[in-house]
Description:
Strand order of the largest sheet: 1-2-3
Amino acid sequence: EKVGQLFVMRVYGHTATDPDQADVDANLEELGVRDAAELISTYHVGGIIYFTWAHNTRDPHQIAGLSNGIQRASLGRRNGLPVLISTDQEHGIVCRVGAP
Length: 100
């Protein structure tokens, strides 16, 4: 668990527990898990980074739901520690989180 907490991972999907089938397939192929909640419980990661291309940043309401689901999954672990939520946000040509 302590080693897993050193890692910040990305995961496909707009929710922590119910991503689209294409996102499930991508997660299974690349990470061996179905969704963000399973990533947290399996690998005990310390953080999740959001990317638009991973379908994590549709709009502020969706981002809040994803973040809440990730934290619920994290707080349900044995250690009960929350995860760090981050994004690659530069406000130049790249802008991961749009205006509300």
